[in-house]
Write a structure and sequence with these properties.
Elements lengths: L1 H19 L12 E3 L6 H7 L4 H8 L11 E3 L2 E4 L6 H7 L4 H8 L11 E4 L5 E3 L2 E4 L1 H10 L8 E6 L13 H14 L10 E3 L5 E3 L13 H5 L1 E6 L12 H18 L8 E3 L34 H22 L2
Parallel strand pairs: 7-10, 7-11, 8-10
Antiparallel strand pairs: 1-2, 3-4, 5-6, 6-9, 8-9
């Protein structure tokens, strides 16, 4: 009887222990990510992780030194080698590269040993000035690491018209962005390049104007106040540029990622075409604007046309499907 009572007591304690074990509801932050807290500064974070402000800017695609609480930054950290590790495996899991790890740690070969401690530096982004050039995966990482202070509830789709595909050579992304910036500043008298994002025929994406600065442009202040402007390089009016599959996939993906980030459902109220806004009044007219008061932008051949029906039938369903695909892969 005494033994039975003891067994019951032990089982009770075990069950109690299991019941009160902590549940980590908060998102786990990996070692290579630092989440910005109140009072943080780039110099302070750089000092804490034995790196530089310049490295933090280049590895995180920062367009300013202003930080927002909750923003996530890639930082260097110390990693202890475990069984089965390789430089390829470690770098793939930690936003780095085998070459970077070897260089920073002075390794003469790729051989590792159990318990070896390595400094893992994050890889740099492709930046020139305020411009950040990325592929789709890099843009997704960048977007979801950011915190924005401006209310964003409208995605604008545009085409550049000029420059068109004829001016794109495959390697002149930054030159094209700077040329657009020069035109927008000198001729249009805007503060900097008008658009927040630019997509290219090869499927790459450039963060252009900072997201926390409202875009400028002829679509007008009402659309810009809560808007993110996307300029898709090309002339997509019928009879001109035929959109590449790479750019098509990027345009759909970017719209889907922005909808997920800002909690938007694709509709005429959340993803708008420049064609739906009157150039004179700056008011939204949808399909009812006279030709002389509206642009064809983003093109009469943009995913089947520039009407609301084309958007509803051809573009929005693709964005919704992409949102489902992306959401299924997110933790």
């Amino acid at each position: 009887m005494k033994n039975s009572a003891m067994i019951v007591f032990i089982l009770f304690v075990f069950c109690l222990h299991v019941h009160v074990s902590p549940v980590y509801s908060k998102e786990h932050i990996p070692d290579n990510i630092y989440e910005v807290r109140s009072g943080d500064t780039l110099p302070g974070i750089a000092n804490q992780y034995e790196t530089t402000v310049e490295e933090l800017v280049l590895t995180n695609g920062l367009q300013s030194h202003t930080l927002v609480v909750g923003q996530k930054l890639y930082v260097p950290f110390i990693y202890e080698v475990t069984s089965g590790d390789s430089l390829d495996k470690i770098s793939a899991a930690n936003h780095s590269s085998p070459w970077l790890i070897k260089t920073v740690n002075g390794l003469s070969s790729s051989e590792l040993y159990l318990g070896q401690k390595l400094k893992i530096p994050p890889k740099r982004m492709n930046m020139q000035g305020q411009y950040i050039l990325m592929d789709r995966g890099e843009f997704q990482d960048w977007l979801f690491n950011q915190k924005f202070t401006r209310n964003i509830s409208l995605i604008q789709e545009h085409h550049t018209w000029l420059p068109s595909y004829k001016q794109f050579y495959g390697t002149n992304h930054f030159h094209m962005l700077k040329s657009m910036e020069n035109f927008h500043v000198k001729e249009m008298k805007w503060k900097t390049i008008a658009q927040n994002l630019t997509t290219f025929p090869d499927g790459t994406i450039a963060v252009s104007r900072p997201f926390d600065i409202a875009p400028e442009g002829t679509i007008g202040p009402k659309a810009n106040a809560a808007g993110i402007t996307i300029e898709n390089v090309g002339n997509f009016d019928l009879g001109h540029d035929v959109m590449t599959e790479a750019q098509k996939e990027t345009i759909i993906t970017v719209a889907a990622l922005l909808c997920i980030k800002f909690g938007l459902t694709p509709s005429v109220d959340s993803i708008t075409y420049h064609h739906w806004w009157d150039l004179r009044t700056k008011e939204r007219v949808l399909d009812n604007g006279p030709d002389y008061n509206v642009k064809t932008c983003p093109g009469t051949g943009f995913f089947g046309g520039n009407s609301t029906a084309s958007a509803k039938n051809n573009f929005y369903p693709l964005v919704v499907q992409k949102m489902k695909e992306i959401s299924a892969t997110m933790h």
